[in-house]
Amino acid sequence: MRNRTLAGEEHEVRRHSSLAGRPPIGERELICMMALLMALNAFGIDAILPALDDLGGDLGAAGNDRQFVVGVYLLASGVGTVLPGSFADRFGRRPVLFVALGAYILLSVACALASSFTMLVALRAVQGIFAAGIIALPPAIIRDRVGGDRMARMMSLIFVIFLLVPAIAPSIGQGIMAVMGGWRWIFAAMAALGLGMTAWVYLRLPETLHAADRQEIRLRPIVRNMTSALTLRETIGYTLGSALVFGGLFGFINSSQQLIGEAFGAGDDFPLIFAICAGCMAISNWSNSRIVERFGARRVSHVALFAFIAVAAAQLWFASQPDESLWTFVPLMAANMSLLGFIGANFGSIAMQPFGHIAGAAASAQGFVRMTSGAALGGFIGYAYDGTARPLALALLATAVLSLLFVLFSEKGELFGPPVRDTD
Q: Which residue from 126, 124, 132 is spatially nearest to 186, judged by alpha carbons?
């Protein structure tokens, strides 16, 4: 692996940039851009949540079937992540991003025009597959530039901005329906946001893939690179562990509208409650960015995982009581979403650390496992909704315990390792 100083890296980025005559993109702008790229995907999930009742009524979907609009998109985007990384390792990050953004825009328009629930679900599946590039490439772009705990810090800052979108997306979706008169306009807003991001990427993002790291599009090297990213003992536990804990989070997202609106009778307050939970996750990611380089991604995430297990156990106890209220559910759910802020970015950065030379393939392979497993698990958890918070609470506890076992496997039973410096 080539050694690169930060100054040499900046020179390399400028040399490969096609944006001659413009000031180079700085770290803050890059963080904001990557965060908002990923937030397009989040907006496509969370803005539609308040519209599930109206959407289901208009298109003939009832009960838990309404969740497929969200669950299918999540699962398809996970399946799709296996594709963009290898192409990005060959042709560069920019061309693959443009394909993903273009498809996101066109399919958002198509969803707005859907005439049946089956058509809408099918379009969401295709949209999720193409939108996978929006999910998979930001970690690869960041890994092109930095590694170690510094990458964890940058990814945490990205998640701070990224998570502000889920916090406000349900309110935006509800506002769009109120002002424009229907759920279809939410998809129109998705297309408009996609156009804005496309323009920003075109004007400001240089090509970050280094010439020496370009990979050939051949089945054997692709399989070898992806297999390497998924079989290295020191990282696979973190990939599987994050898939499990985020599967629990996806289960909450899938069932949140029904759980808060029906089980706790707070449907009118759903956007605010969802914003509180997502906002707590954003705050914890910001806190993580301030401490991770000092204490290390391993120490921070391992402590957070143990705390997550404890809070999930409390959630299960309260959910098993016949009189559980919103006032116990929301603080505990917000606490565990806060703890996810100390787990997600750190687990992802640890898993990517050895793969700077094949960052695109590694991001795709790990994203594929993380998203497909998490989305499938989240769909199962959401569909198990029975009018109470018990299925969700049980799933959160079980997935966290299993995640700890996977981390122990990767770390050979030794937790709380020291910080890792960026040496690339």
A: 124
**Residue matched to tokens 């910001």:** 286
10 Å CB burial of residue 44 (0-12, 13-18, 19+) is buried
Residue 45, pLDDT > 80, answer yes
C-alpha angle 268-36-154 in degrees, rounded to nearest 5: 115
Angle at 412 between CA 288 and CA 159, to 5 degrees: 20
How many angstroms separate the CA atoms of 223 and 227, rounded?
A: 6
Question: Residue 51 pLDDT > 80, yes or no?
Answer: yes
What gap in Å lies between CA 180 and CA 85, rounded to an integer? Answer: 38
Amino acid type, 188: A
267 DSSP assignment: G
Query: Contact at 8 Å (CB) between 73 and 124?
Result: yes
pLDDT tens by residue, 149-182: 777 778 777 777 776 777 788 889 989 998 988 8
Transcribe 286-302 into DSSP letters.
HHHHHHHHHH-HHHHHH
Sign of the dihedral through C-alpha 242, 309, 342, 166: positive
Query: What Cα–Cα distance (Å) separates residue 302 from each residue in 149, 197, 209, 340, 407?
Result: 14, 35, 32, 11, 9
The torsion of the CA quartet 40, 45, 50, 51, rounded to 10 degrees, works out to 100
354 vs 422: CA distance, rounded Å: 11
Cα gap 41→390, rounded to integer Å: 28
Residue 300 confidence (pLDDT): 92
**DSSP designation for 147:** -
Q: Is 182 exposed, middle or buried (0-12, 13-18, 19+ CB in 10 A)?
A: middle
**Is 263 within 8 Å of 361 (Cβ atoms)?**
no
Q: What is the pLDDT of residues 240-260, one digit of tens each?
A: 998 898 888 888 887 887 888
DSSP 306-363: HHHHHHHHHHHHHHTSTT--HHHHHHHHHHHHHHHTTTHHHHHHHHHGGGGGGHHHHH
In this prediction, residues 4-31 reach a mean pLDDT of 59
Q: State the virtual CA torsion across 372, 375, 242, 205 in degrees, nearest 10.
A: 70
Token pair 């496992």 is found at 369
Q: Is 60 left (phi over 0), alpha (psi -120 to 50) or beta?
A: left
Looking at residue 263, the DSSP 8-state letter turns out to be I
CB 388 within 8 A of CB 325: no
Looking at this protein, which amino acid is placed at residue 74?
L
Output the pTM of the full model. Answer: 0.68
